[in-house]
Design goal:
- By secondary structure, the chain is mainly alpha-helical.
- The protein has helices spanning 14-40, 47-65, 73-97.
- The termini are far apart.
Length: 103
Amino acid sequence: MELGVKKKIKRDGTLQTWTGFLSFVIGLIALAGLNAALLLETKAFPETALVQLPLIGLFLGIVGLFTRKRSRLCAWWGIGICVFLFVFTFMMFGLAWSINPKP
């Protein structure tokens, strides 16, 4: 009886690795856009930096978590930054609406 040698199937996991990294980069870009809008004191925040980019980054981060034998660190950081942007936006608008100008 001979032992069978299994062939190693080479799976390309670069898509999942890139999705985690892109999630991190998109989160940083959205955070920089939000900071720039706050520092410049613009009347209207760009909707792209508040909603669209963090949503895309969150989706890419979740896809980046499904990696095997690859680092998921960038995906976790990307998800964390995007969730922070959503929570900050909600808290900023929610607390601003709760201010009563006429006591």
